[in-house]
Amino acid sequence: MKSLLSITIVCACMMAEAQPAYPTTPAEAQVIYSDLDNFLTAFNLLEADSDSIAVLNENYFSKASPGLIEYIGRHGLTPEKLAKALGRNPDQYALLPDFRKKIKSFIKRYSKNLLTFHDVVPNAMYPPTYLIVGSNRGIAQASPKGQLVTIERAIDSPEELLHLMLHELTHFQQALTLGFQNYIKTYSQTNNMLDLVLREGGAEFVSYYLVEKGKRPYRNKKYFEANEADLKARFITDLENQEQSYWMWESLSESNKHTLLGYTIGYKICEAYYLNAEDKNQALFDILGISNAQSFLQESGYFTKN
Q1: Do 148 and 195 sit in the same domain of this protein?
Q2: pTM for the full model?
Q3: Is 133 inside a domain boundary?
Q4: What is the rounded distance in angstroms from the CA atom of residue 35 to the CA atom of residue 68?
Q5: Are residues 134 and 200 both part of a single domain?
Q6: For residue 232, is it within any domain?
Q7: How many angstroms separate the most distant Cα atoms in the chain?
Q8: Residue 261 in contact with residue 218, Cβ under 8 Å?
Q9: Which mean pLDDT values do the consecutive 10-residue runs of the chain (306 residues) have?
Q10: I need a surface site. Which of 137, 225, 259, 283 has the fewest CB within 10 A?
Q11: Angstrom distance (rounded) from CA 268 to CA 260
Q12: What superkingdom heads the lineage (predicted)?
């Protein structure tokens, strides 16, 4: 399975503290896939001698949903970049028509997960999720328009895509709990490695442990636990030096089997905090609203208890 990058910076235009008017029940949650339909229209029109850029522009970009428009503005997606990605990864994009045939059953599975999510986080809000076709970068993030999720990188693993959507939904709850201004501020702060690790680990813990109930193997968990002592020692050293490359987004590469280990150690820290807490509801609230990363780490007991 190809690694999938989760980028979770909420746009500055969400900085107002006023709570946005998103739905508060899973039944109202929307999964919008009009961009997938438009892409497939363009995809079916592409021929060896066709002007691929013109076809993509006319049938995909010009009909962009609000989510795709937001994504284009953030990541500079253009017909030229998408055409090049299609040329480099034709087999990956060729899986999209089959995914579209199964979209209703996929959304049904997601809706079922949302019912569990609502049991776990009763005060959750549910922004729309836009399924977008991008240039094979594997990006997902929250935005004022809703969740922006590119699907082509995870198209061969619906389970991973479902997990990613729950992960991003958890980030949205973190932003609500902290307040959007405080949530955003973390990304521009210096020495923010621990904050980022706990934020990503918290989203992983809620989505995988509490919502998915650990029903599938968790990324890197087996490797991490087999090498936990060494990884914990390295993490302490790297944290002192604020060296994020081994743990966070810089670790992504096609040749690296164990990417984003910061997500995994953040997961383990949050897991320790939750399991050690007497009041699980308060522990969940604490995980969603980590404002003092160092204090949270100490209270978790992860590095001090066996």
Answers
A1: no
A2: 0.88
A3: yes
A4: 7
A5: no
A6: yes
A7: 66
A8: no
A9: 44 46 94 98 89 96 97 96 95 95 96 97 95 91 88 90 94 91 88 96 96 82 91 96 87 65 95 97 97 97 84
A10: 225
A11: 13
A12: Bacteria
